[in-house]
Structure formats: structure tokens, C-alpha cells
Amino acid sequence: QLYDGSYCTITGLRLLMTDITELFALISNLLKLYNGIAQFNALRNRE
């Protein structure tokens, strides 16, 4: 019983870590997109 509980906890933590990793990847991609748009606007304003 105790083993099953700890196994569920470990699995839950692993899923949580995966979610957090994916969230950070998403934020990173959004920041790259934002930087790309900012650079594009800067180039456009320069012309």
C-alpha cells in the first residue's frame, strides 16, 4: 500500500516536471517570437 502511494507520488512529480518543462519551453518560444517582432518593427521603422 505504501509502495503504491510513493509510486503514484513519483509518477505525479514526473508528470508535473514534464508540464513545467513544457511551460518553460512555451515561454521561451513566446519570448523569441516577441524579440523577432520587436526586431522586425525596429527594421521597419528604420526605413
What would you say this structure looks like, in words?
It contains one helix and no strands. It has one domain (1-47). With 47 residues, it is mostly helical. It has one helix at 2-46. The model has no long low-confidence stretch (mean pLDDT 89).
Q: How many strands, what sense, and barrel or not for the largest sheet? A: none
The average pLDDT is: 89
Radius of gyration: 20 Å
What share of the residues does DSSP label as strand, in percent?
under 5%
* Number of helical regions: 1
Q: Which stretches are poorly predicted, pLDDT < 50 over at least 5 residues? A: none
Distance between the termini: 69 Å
Helical proportion? over 70%
Bulk shape: rod-shaped
Number of strands: 0
Number of domains: 1
Run of helices and strands: H
Which structural class best describes the helix and strand composition? mainly alpha
Features:
47 residues, mainly alpha, 1 helix, 0% strand, rod-shaped
Task: Map the helices and strands.
Layout: H1 2-46
Question: What's the quick description here?
Answer:
This protein has 1 helix and no strands.
